[in-house]
Structures are given as structure tokens and as C-alpha cells.
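Consider today's protein:

***
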Amino acid sequence: MKRILSFIMAFSLLVFGCKENAKVEISSEHDHEHEEVKFQYTSYSESLEYFAEADPFVLGEESNILSHFTWLSNFKPLENAKITLKLQVNTSEVSETLEGSDRPGIYSFNLQPEIAGSGKLVYEIQSGNEIYKVEVPGITVFQDDEAAHEAAEEAEISSVNTSVFTKEQSWKIDFCTELPANEPFGQVIKTVAQVQSAPSDEMTLTAKSNGMVQFLSNNLVEGKTVSENENLMSISGNQLAVNNSAVMYAEAKNNYETSKLDYERKQELAKEKIVSEKDLLEAKNKYENARVIYQNLENNFNDRGEIVKSPSGGYIRQMFVKNGDYVNPGQALATITRNRGFMLHAEIQPKYRESMNHYSDAVIRTMGSNITYDLKDLDGKLIASGNSASEGNFMIPVHLRTDASANLIPGDFVELYLKTASEENKLVVPNSALLEEQGYFFVYVQLTPELFEKREVKTGETDGLSTEIKSGISANERIVTQGAMFIKLSQATGALDPHAGHVH
């Protein structure tokens, strides 16, 4: 029997799906070009999103069920799966098994109901060694076409301000839909922080003698990676008339060698009682003193003077001298950073001092690359929140520490969102779900996995990763959290055929 309708209609029904808290959406559309009714079904299991376009189930007539399966872990199509579809109505069951599909994620079934009534669709999916099951309740097998058309006309949803974005399109991009979170969301204190090296990870090299600096490599510059005990530069006083380190080194070496020979000679003479025990002890003491002085100089000097070594692995953060500079003992030469962590130094207004007593977490956002980090993900923590104002500007200092996995640069500035604990649950969405237009914020609400409504929302506080939604959506409405901009672009280029890219 030929199915004819004079207008486009949509029918939506929410029921509990195959697992606890899963939802099923059922709608129908009329395509003027094909002049046929299409029912749409949506369901979610723990692992898969299911979406199908199907002919009405009419007693004795074959219906096509074009089924789309998407992994919820990455929103990519289910491929190379063996799937059995069963239509169960009362005690009757008809089924079909597909060993695979020609198009990734899309499986086309044909079933002919044997009895009319209410039932369900059951998908048994074998992917690799894993077995999955998806149930779609609320299926009606109609007595005839007229009954199917009447049922579709009973409910019609508005398609105003909606965009069609097919599964084939979403599979090609980074795409994701989620339910808004309903979770505690406290006060957020936004400020700017400076990235600093952790005090325990930074060491300053200082000169131990006076003289001229000579670099031992041609690329001794800031940012250079160095290894532990690597020779970096020498300080030579060979040209100095006084306090000449080379002369001091040579004198210590001569004293050491002379005292060593004298002590060894007296050891032999003492065996024959030619040298007294007192003379031997004096010779030993002189030798030990000379050895300590010489070894100390030898560890830090050679024939070119003092050797400056890196105390640990890391990189050169700052150079304080140039090749050929004259330095005095105690003068800073360079700073070595081990790059095992960062300190974030921020200042907040005094009115937030009490709020910091309820600090729970922080979010870091780089200003250049707009990369966002959760401090807890970096094993970071609050080190100190000052109880006194900074000198001269009346601001309260705050210090936090992170590990080195973040792409931060000491000396740079980042946006910092300090979060406080709260017992009040609020509706929260990822910032990636929000689109801003002239100061107004919008999200795309999923009506079906291929139909999305652009809806304005009223926002509250943001922590750099998520934003509180005060109005505009409800907790049970699924929204686009990745790929919203692509839907906006497709809407700007004009509406697409709802069945574009589908094979019926």
C-alpha cells in the first residue's frame, strides 16, 4: 500500500530504554519528495548511542529500519559488527541478522511484523569479543497504514530554529553530546597569576673566586638544557696580580705533593726509630691539611681556573654574566631550573579572604594558546593564602603549586580561577558547549541525534572549564558539547535534507 501524507510531521515520545535512566525518543517525519512516513527512534546504553529511521510497522508489510550505532566513548561509528535485530510483540518475534554493513555505523534491516500491538526492538551486537544489547521499547505495530498516519498526527514538534546534522557528518569531526551536569558549583574567584619556578627546583650558580669568565661551549644561552655535573664555564685569574686563582691552585698542588713526600719518607724512617713519633704526627697533620686544600681546589679548578658545573639536570633559566666578564666571589652567574614544578603567584581582593577558607580547586588557562588545566589533574595544590595584604597594594597573595606536565613558562602570566566548595547543586555545562553571539550565549539542544535546536541560555559563573546555566535548558535535555560550531556553520549555509547521505 502506497504511503501518502500532505505535510511534514514529527512525533516524539520519551520512555525508559534498555538500561536504567536511558531514554528513547520516537519521532516521525514526512518527506515530500518520497511521500512517505519515517519514524525515528533514539536510545542510549552504557556504551552506544542508537538512532534509527524506520518505516511504520504495519501488520503484514515489510518495514525498513536504517540503524545508526555510535560509540559513546569517542562518538565514532560502530564498525565490523555482527548484529541481530528482533521485533518482539507479545509472543511473536521476527528477526534478521547482518554480518556487517557496507557503510560504517549504518545497518539496514527489513522486518515484516506478524501481529499488531505494542512491542519492542532488541539489538544483539557482537563487536570483537564483546557482546552488547540495545532495547528500544514503545514500538507499535499498526493494523493498517491509516492507523499509522493517525498516530503520527497526534503529536507534532516545532522545527523552528533547528539544524539538521547527520550522523555521517558528526562522525567525521570531533563531536560529542552530553546531559548537563547537576553538581555542586561554588563561588569562583577570577584573577591573573604569574608562573614562577618552584623555589626548591631553582638553583643559582655563584662564583667561588675572582677572575674572567670563559664559556666552555658556544651555545651557553638561556633555555639551554643541561645535565648534572656538566661543565658550563670557567673563571680564570691568570692575568691578575693579586688573588690569582691559578697561582693559588699551583701553590696548593705544590704544598700537597711536598707534604705527601715528606710524610711518606718519615713513615719509613719511623720504622727504624730514626724519626720520633711526634715528628711523624706533625708530618701527617701537615700532609692532611695540604691534601684537603688541594682536593677542594682541584674539584673546582684546573689549569684554566675555577670550573663552574651544573648542580643538577634542567635548563638555564637566566644568565647573569657574558663571556669575558670579570666576577668576584659570591657573584651570581646563572640560574638552573630543574623544571619539576611551577609556582603560581596571584593576588586577590581582601573581600575574598574568607572565601579562600573554603578553597576546593583551581583552573589555569594560558593566555596565548588558551589551553585550560584543572589544578588537581596536575597534582597541584594550594600552598598558601596570605592573611595579610601585600605591601603597597592592599591585595591578598595566593600561592599554588603544579607539576611540570603543564605547558607553562616561568615568568608568563595565566588566567586563574579559584574555586570554593559548595553544597548547592547547579546545572553546569562544559564551556565548549557555549556559543556567544553579541553578548548572548546559546547551546544546541539535541531533539534527535540528527536534529538540533539552537537555544539561548542564561549563564552564571564560570571556572574556565564549565559554566553555570541559570535558565534555558533542563537537566534531561542532551546538548552538543563538542562540534557546536560545525552545526552553526551548517545552519548558516542552509537547511539540509534530513535524509541526506542516508540509504533507505
